[in-house]
Design brief:
Layout: H1 22-32, H2 35-42, H3 49-56, E1 61-63, E2 78-80, E3 83-85, E4 89-91, H4 104-115, E5 119-121, H5 129-135, E6 140-144, H6 150-162, E7 167-171, H7 181-186, H8 196-203, H9 206-213, H10 236-243, H11 250-259, E8 264-269, H12 272-280, E9 285-289, H13 302-313, E10 318-322, H14 328-336, E11 341-344, H15 346-378, E12 391-393
Parallel strand pairs: 4-11, 5-6, 6-7, 7-8, 8-9, 9-10, 10-11
Antiparallel strand pairs: 1-12, 2-3
Helix pairs in contact: 1-2, 1-15, 4-15, 12-13, 14-15
The structure holds flavin mononucleotide.
Amino acid sequence: MAFPVRPIPYDRPMKLDRLYNTADFREAARRRLPAPMFNYIDGGADDEWTLKRNTAAFDDYEITPGQLNDISAVDTGIELFGRKLDWPVFLAPTAMTRLFHHEGERAAARAADATGTLYSVSTLATTSMEDIASATPGPKMFQVYIFRDRGLTAEFVERAKASGYDALCLTVDTPVQGNRERDLKTGMTIPPRFSLKSALSFAAHPHWALTTGFGGFELENVSHGGGGLSGKTMSLLQYIHTQFDSTLTWKDAEWLREHWDGPFVIKGLQSAADVARAAQLGADAVMISNHGGRQLDSAPAPVDGIAAAVEAADGRLDVICDGGIRRGKHAVIALALGAKACSVGRPYLYGLAAAGEAGATRALTRLKEEVTRTLALMGKQNIAGLSSGDVQRL
Ligand SMILES: Cc1cc2nc3c(=O)[nH]c(=O)nc-3n(C[C@H](O)[C@H](O)[C@H](O)COP(=O)(O)O)c2cc1C
């Protein structure tokens, strides 16, 4: 006799050992999350040309290996912002992580720590920067969005200093929000709105709904200062347009540089002229980034901007490649082209959504293993051994 009620197929515990790469984790996240949450992670702006190009651009490069080099001990370590990282890929800042798993930012920070890398905390985190700082001893960077209320920005700097953050990062590519049509179509709001449509999607994902959906959300870094949700439900677009300061100029970046005496990073630059400007104002690093294809569509892929950025920096600052990395070989190509480090957003969020801390840790561990294996297959004993001669543009 046929079973009268179809068991819910998408809510069984994940078999993590069957997930091998970022694409597997993406598929697991898709099954685990209600549509508004999955598409919020996965989507990009307008036609998603830049989103796709960020990864596709890596296919324009070949890697030529060298052989017979004793690769019995491959060292993937680097030093970044005065801290030693076990591998050269770190976690980019992502907003509202507790929408995807109830363990949220704490779990992501622990996954970063477990794999020996740095975690970046977003201004729009759903756990306070102090609580994240005390969750793990690993290296951390705080990412700043400048709010209309400048008092909040000054406060971020003081709080990041007091809680021991290693670096401060100013994101400059969000003067307005990009046009993310998937969010409009799925009715994505913060916190999740329980409309009839979303309620059906939540009902099909009871594990998420029970552990995460009914958990309550607040933007913990800004809620006390009028930047919180305070019980309101709105789209991210509405939030950004009411809270973020769209009058920002290089003067504001200078101001932040002056008030933070540790490593200072500017995230979201794409042109060589802007990289030179960042070096002039004393930034320690730039993240070549188009926000993972979520802001200006038709912006170029970060990997294609590395060489020009390194030239414009002229040794004055480090260049970080952010966006599109889905395989270890992608990170290795970026490093060979001159990047000091790389960062990933979606790859760890897919892992987190699939299975919390364990999922994020496994997604990152697999990526790390891919970096190590790629170096070994190239005949490289360490990151310093990479050079632009190892990769050719097709
Ligand atoms: C769900 C999500 C939320 C994000 N939130 C932020 C944020 O709060 N601040 C920020 O600077 N960048 C944010 N980003 C962009 C990431 O820091 C990073 O630039 C991007 O994810 C890199 O591309 P990748 O996802 O292909 O690795 C977010 C990205 C995603 C996917």
